[in-house]
Write a structure and sequence with these properties.
The chain is α+β, with helices and mostly antiparallel strands. It has 21 helices and 20 strands. Strands 2, 3, 4, 5, 10 and 16 form a 6-stranded mixed sheet that branches. A 5-stranded antiparallel sheet has the order 12-11-20-19-18, sandwiched between helices. Strands 1-8-9 form a 3-stranded antiparallel sheet. Strand 19 and strand 20 form a beta hairpin. Helix 10 packs antiparallel against helix 20, helix 12 crosses helix 14 and helix 13 crosses helix 18. The longest helix has about 30 residues.
């Protein structure tokens, strides 16, 4: 029989094709089941519902353990888009009080948010009121895909300290992109310690895995919660502020534009920090937050602006002690060196005026009387000190370095967002301004009295008072006293910063500020000293080219063992003794004695009544 080679050949070809097809199926099944998770994920997502469990945010307390920020229950309306089939959109919009356009925009925003999945719950409306929650909950059965999620939002025990505490708000797309912890609808700290200590306060999210049937109906926990993860609550914070003192200081600053900062010198702890005008932090809670925030932004007196650490002001005469200290350390004067004041600082035809007449002063009475002439000559002699420096350029570098060591010209590093550096000029600034490096000391003499180009924050001025109280060192000012679960606060707040100026020179300035309170420029306070308190202080009347001068005071007490250092800065307040001294000294008395003595009630009542809002204080 003849062999059919063509038939044999066909059998091999067909067999080969079948084998190839089988191999393709095997490889495809391997890829789908082992390599590609897409269908597995689809199946899993159809069977399971994963819910995020939000942790309670850490609570906030003052230095005495008073609760100032706590959590309260809030409700979010969430949606799982894959389950939103057959939704009666019109009825839904009527139930929650929105129009169709708003509905479609929110759905579109959800679809384009980072990490979006049609299988997971997404926030549709946050912070629903208790009343709305009750209305919506009983209607949810009509709206497939929608659910209510319980979480917590912030509330406040007292209407104080918004610039310290901050608030929370919904995350924005950039924050979601930067940190995978967040997803659309989450809350994040905004301003104050809520922002600077966000990673401690927010805690760690948990998750709950629920089992669904073929129709998407939740049947209960998957394997009795075996794979659920409990949330970890945020850490509580204890702040350095005294809530009672904070409230009192804010009450004195009502209807005034400016700031007050009180520091414990031995630790750098902030006892009170006021920016005025201020606002009630409870305005930025709930669904009215956006409306209220917009209102505060439009306020011409800028209550959202933290003047205590962000505003830069001419420090005026509160700056003079720094010039005396530098002159003493540089050896151009000693405690017995008299410097002339002929109605001010005079050099040829140039004159920088002074309230004093013809006199010569040494360092202690010069501080007590706030003599412009004396401190003008201090700076002049420092910049003309050819025995120690090769010309004015080197001398000015040395001067600038002293100022930086005393906490001026750069951020101090407070643990609140928004701090600015003020301004201390360097030689390059003046070389450019004068178009030469051969300028003379008299050309910059106004900086010796805290005018000209000098700018400082109220925090920096308060820190100077604390440094003098410590006789030569300071701790970085801070508002954190304890973080729950940690043995100590960040290391940066625990080590002293020394100014490089000898303690013996601080003794002289210390006494000068004491004499200022007894018989000098602070004598308004000296005539009526707080009960049982010996005060040291320095006033400032900062010139203001835009209107009435600013009123400034810095001081500390008690004399023997200072426990509080204060700066009070009132824009357009006039003389330092008009607003700065009464407010600053009252805050000191309140902190040390717990009350205001009867004989000083007049100052207290007067400060409550006085206003600077009509004195161009916006400028």
């Amino acid at each position: 029989m003849q062999h059919d080679f063509k038939l044999e050949k066909r059998k091999f070809i067909i067999g080969g094709l079948v084998l190839v097809v089988v191999l393709i199926y095997i490889l495809r099944l391997f890829f789908l089941q082992i390599v590609d998770d897409k269908y597995k994920e689809d199946a899993r997502n159809n069977a399971f519902l994963t819910r995020t469990i939000y942790p309670a945010r850490g609570e906030i307390f003052d230095r005495h353990g008073r609760q100032v920020v706590y959590n309260q229950v809030a409700y979010d309306l969430v949606v799982t888009l894959r389950e939103m089939k057959g939704l009666d959109t019109l009825a839904f919009c009527q139930t929650i009080g929105i129009d169709r356009e708003t509905f479609e925009k929110r759905i579109n925003d959800i679809k384009h948010s980072r990490g979006y999945s049609s299988y997971t719950q997404q926030v549709f409306t946050s912070q629903i009121t208790g009343e709305d929650y009750a209305n919506i909950e009983q209607m949810l059965w009509r709206f497939p895909g929608f659910d209510i999620r319980t979480r917590t939002i912030r509330n406040y025990m007292y209407p104080i300290a918004p610039h310290i505490l901050g608030n929370i708000r919904e995350v924005n797309p950039k924050e979601i992109e930067r940190d995978p912890y967040y997803q659309r609808g989450d809350y994040v700290g905004d301003m104050g310690v809520e922002k600077s200590y966000e990673t401690y306060l927010r805690g760690v999210k948990g998750k709950e895995i629920l089992l669904r049937d073929a129709h998407g109906v939740v049947k209960g926990s998957y394997e009795n919660g075996k794979y659920d993860i409990d949330p970890v609550p945020g850490r509580d914070l204890t702040l350095t502020i005294d809530a009672e003192l904070q409230a009192y200081a804010e009450s004195l600053m009502v209807n005034k534009v400016g700031a007050l900062v009180a520091i414990e010198p031995k630790t750098g702890e902030i006892l009170a920090l006021v920016s005025s005008p201020t606002y009630d932090p409870r305005l930025l809670v709930g669904r009215q937050r956006s409306k209220n925030y917009s209102m505060l932004q439009k306020d011409p007196f800028k209550p959202l602006f933290n003047r205590a650490i962000t505003a830069s002001y001419p420090p005026g005469s509160t700056f003079k002690p720094t010039q005396g200290l530098i002159a003493l350390q540089e050896g151009v004067i000693n405690e017995h060196t008299p410097l002339p004041c002929h109605g001010g600082f005079r050099f040829g035809n140039f004159k920088m005026g002074c309230h004093d007449g013809n006199a010569s002063w040494t360092i202690i009475p010069a501080i007590a009387t706030s003599c412009n002439g004396f401190f003008g000559w201090c700076l002049y002699n420092v910049l003309s000190n050819t025995k120690k420096h090769k010309g004015i350029q080197q001398a000015f570098d040395a001067w600038k370095n002293y100022m930086v060591a005393m906490g001026y010209g750069y951020k101090l590093g407070i643990d609140l967002p928004g701090e600015t550096r003020g301004f201390i000029p360097n030689k390059e600034f003046y070389n450019k301004a004068f178009r030469t490096d051969k300028w003379k000391p008299v050309s910059v003499i106004s900086i010796s009295i805290g005018q000209g180009e000098i700018l400082a924050t109220p925090l920096q001025i308060a820190n100077l008072a604390a440094t003098i109280a410590n006789k030569g060192h300071y701790y970085v000012p801070h508002v954190i006293k304890k973080i729950d679960g940690f043995e100590q606060i960040p290391d940066t707040f625990l080590h002293p910063h020394h100014t490089g100026i000898d303690r013996q020179y601080y003794d002289l300035v210390y006494e000068g500020m004491h004499q200022a309170a007894i018989m000098g420029t602070v004598r308004r306070t000296g005539n009526l000293q707080p009960e049982g308190i010996i005060l040291c202080g320095k006033t400032g009347t900062a010139q203001n080219p835009h209107g009435k001068d600013h009123s400034v005071f810095m001081g500390f007490a008690p004399y023997e063992d200072p426990k509080i250092a204060v700066c009070c800065y009132v824009q357009n307040g006039g003389f330092g003794a008009t607003f700065g001294v009464p407010i600053g000294s009252l805050v000191i008395e309140k902190y040390l004695n717990g009350k205001i003595s009867q004989r000083r009630k007049f100052f207290e009542e007067n400060m409550y009544k006085q206003s600077t809002l009509n004195a161009g204080a916006m400028k």
